[in-house]
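Narrative of activities, Objective 1.

The group set out to show that a structural description can be obtained from nothing but a protein's sequence at a throughput compatible with the screening campaign. Below is one input-output pair from the validation batch, recorded exactly as produced.
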Amino acid sequence: MNVLDRGRNHALALFRIVVGVLFVCHGAQKLFGVLGSKGAVSITSWPSGPAGVIELVGGALIVLGLGTRVAAFVSSGAMAYAYFVVHQPQGLLPIENHGELAAVYSWVFLLLVFTGPGAWALDRVISSRKDTGSTRPAHV
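Output recorded for this entry:
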């Protein structure tokens, strides 16, 4: 095992946390009109409202490493939808239709679906507690 392989789970965790925080910022910008937004959208405004909820909640779950694979799957799908429905009709390539960020987020989250959360994830804490709890003998 080389030196770079030893840090893989920690690098993956940092990747997950940074991308999740950036995604949360997009949701906060849409839903609350902060971080340079020109105004908030209602959660009932299609497709911006539901997208904002997915960005805010999905991003937070990804940051925490809680339900990471499911949150990443839903987030990936939301970004694929954003790319193909909102951006792609404006031009064939992401550079033409300003859909680079939606495309990158979609692929990044799909990667997390397959890799999992890495280190520092609540999923791991919960899983380890379940494992240790099942091996304890019952009190008589």
